[in-house]
Amino acid sequence: MKNSLWENKNIIITGASSGIGEALLKALSTINCRIFTLDRSPKDPPKGVKAEIFPFLCDITKEDDLKKATSEILKKTDTIDYLFNNAGITAHGRFDKMDISVFRKTFDINFFGNIHLTLLLVEALKKARGMVMVTSTVSGLYGIPGRSAYSSSKSALHAVYESLRIELSEFGVRSIIFCPPYTRTALRTSGIDAQGNKLNEEQAKGKIKTPEEVATDMIKAAENPNSKLVIIDKSGFFVKWMRLLSPSLLERILFKKLRHDF
Ligand SMILES: NC(=O)c1ccc[n+]([C@@H]2O[C@H](COP(=O)([O-])OP(=O)(O)OC[C@H]3O[C@@H](n4cnc5c(N)ncnc54)[C@H](OP(=O)(O)O)[C@@H]3O)[C@@H](O)[C@H]2O)c1
Q1: N or C: which end of the chain has fewer CB within 10 A?
Q2: Does pTM surpass 0.90?
Q3: Where do the structural domains in the chain lie, given as residue ranges?
Q4: Which letter, b or e, does each residue of 12-22 get, where b requires 16 or more Cβ atoms within 10 Å of its Cβ?
Q5: pLDDT in tens, 174-226
Q6: Residues near ligand 1 with C-beta < 6 Å?
Q7: Which CATH superfamily is domain 3-235 in?
């Protein structure tokens, strides 16, 4: 980690109570900086760390929670250097069995919660010439079978953070869309199924990343002034290129590979 880029900076992390966000919080808390975390069930900050950590109880789908948390944060600082929009849920199920409430809930958290927070902090990001990173997914690069709500809620974010990047380049604000592959977290139990019930699925099979590995890559991406769409594994690069080179072949492969999922 390039410590000097993080020293004395103001950092916000959503979804820091679990998985990737928790690993990111742990990594950054070794630096002398200020970290504000937003979660529905915030954990006590790690002990004996260098960072000053301020946990906020905040459901990002609730306007009142978001306004209260951001106004408290903006009382402490008027500049935000790094905003990690990481909170999210997954939704699994076939499109033809999906209840519309599943799309609404998934978009409320992954899309609207995320962009509302960014809007509330945009002036502080401009003031700091800061960076905003959204945790998307490889499933945001193409509509993945059995994931129509999840894929669409994440790919919609890509357009927002691309527009924002172009517009706010005038103010030196950077925007990064970060797409981790399968990672060993609680996502498959914190998510919902086609009827909106709690998911209870096993971790994906095969070699999957740890949250610590992903957090390290997020930090590297944030440190690189040229980062835009960041993909960190073979499956992500495969989807990224195949969607342009041969979408028909990509769809056949996704059907075969993920048939059991839907
Ligand atoms: N794990 C993977 O394989 C994978 C792959 C690609 C992308 N991702 C993305 O990585 C991000 C982090 O997920 P994870 O894998 O670390 O899963 P996780 O362990 O389930 O963590 C999700 C985090 O999001 C927070 N969250 C959920 N709904 C929220 C809400 N309404 N308001 C505030 N916080 C909320 C949760 O905190 P509370 O429950 O305390 O609110 C939790 O801290 C997500 O955006 C996910 O889509 C994960």
Answers
A1: N
A2: yes
A3: 3-235
A4: bbbbbbbbbbb
A5: 999 999 999 999 999 999 999 999 998 887 877 899 999 999 999 999 999 99
A6: 14-15, 17-21, 39-41, 59-61, 86-90, 109, 113, 135, 137, 180, 182-183, 185-187, 190
A7: NAD(P)-binding Rossmann-like Domain (3.40.50.720)
